[in-house]
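TL;DR need structure tokens for one chain.
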Amino acid sequence: MGGQPLFILSEDSERTRGEDAQNSNIQAAKAVAETVRTTLGPRGMDKMLVSDSGDVVITNDGATILDEMDIEHPAAQMIVEVASTQEEEVGDGTTTASVLAGRLLAKAEDLLEDDVHPTTIVEGYHEASRLALEAVDEITLEADLDDELLQQVTESSMTGKGTGDIDAAALAETVVAAVQHARTDDGVVRDDITVRTQTGAGASATRLVEGVISEEEPVHADMPRDVSDADVAVLDLDLDLREAEIDAEYNVTDVDQLEQAISAEEEELRGYAEDIVDAGVDVAFVTGDIEDRVASILAKEGVLAVESVSDDEATRIARAVGASTVGSLQDLEGDDLGFAETVRVERFGDEELTFIEGGTNAETVTLFARGGTEHVADELERALNDAIDVAIAALDEGGVVPGAGATEIAIADHIRSGAASIEGRKQLAVEAFADAVDVIPRTLAENTGMDPIDALVDLRTTHESEGVAGLISEGQTGRVGDPIEAGVLDPAAVKREAVESATEAATMIARIDDVISAN
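>> reply
TL;DR here they are.
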């Protein structure tokens, strides 16, 4: 070889190693976390996100903000994944998880500067995470989750979010009612709860519909607009002329042949309508197209028919009314039909929606969210979906804990107590984890208008004396008090998931000392 250099990477590749790689990754991740930090808490601020095409999103939902941002740095993308995982698993706490991950990396940066090895930091963080989960278990309330507690949990999740002209308390009652409708002995069936938005009225017009809302309208103007005690069919087919399976040409040489062809078409189409009427169908939801002549016959027979229903919507309707989806009219029988107390069509501006209520499966519900503008409606939809997920997490995944930063104060205190028994430099990482957790109450204090240092001192003092202490928002400022008495509660599952996902992301980024990128 004669000492000639050996090239492994292409000339276009870029490589960053050692401290430069660590600093680059940590700074990128911290920058992303800092972006959403000001949205935390009941007095958090919103972000306006404008896409290349000019689309505007206004929200303070952490997952939405990070998803809409055009982030290229791979380490920063890992913080986005933290929020995505949090959203998928428990539906809330995305900002908490992202901010915590950023602060853990900031503390890791200090430790690296003090020559603490990355492996030691990782081991310490994992030990601290275990202690944090212990603290969450210890502070979890033992009370049964009745409607009152569930309303407090859902209200806490929506406080500070854009809910238009209605307060979070009123929305919480509607959300809890929806969740209880979808609750079974095996837990809450999330797919039985849908949020549907419609502009044209204030958010105070939001209501619970015990059934399904279809965005499709009747195919004929003469069809009934309101059907009571309806037998409902869900048809996965086209009510149109059948197409030949092979290419063929027909020669029509006289008027009689033309009339026979037209008569055959009419007979085929009339047969479709008669099959539906003979089966006792009052309302038909069809995934395919309905030919105009079929629609006209159905209208004369008093049948309400809707076409071009999406597969997902057809599935929800079938589940709501207890119908079987039928793919051929020859197979349609009375047992395949479902039942709804009412099927009615309502007009909203230029749009019409079909409401299917009081079905056989009464657990299927829709939150019909209203908003004066599209931005308000979209943000309200995000808030309602988060609130639904929060209520389900509280019911199905381990109860509730005090909110308003009280759980984080308890976590930090428990970790510091446990750090005393840990030897070596790993203790520094454990203590750094506790300091990082303090970022949540500190941020809540800042966003509430309080001095973060004074608030943190008061929180720790009150926690030591009372056992629980949180930051209660009041007017233009806040106070240190008991969040349980104030009705500020969070699902324990949200806190557990935030700790676990933030720890995993921070430790993964902290271990990277070499970044190789291809141009």
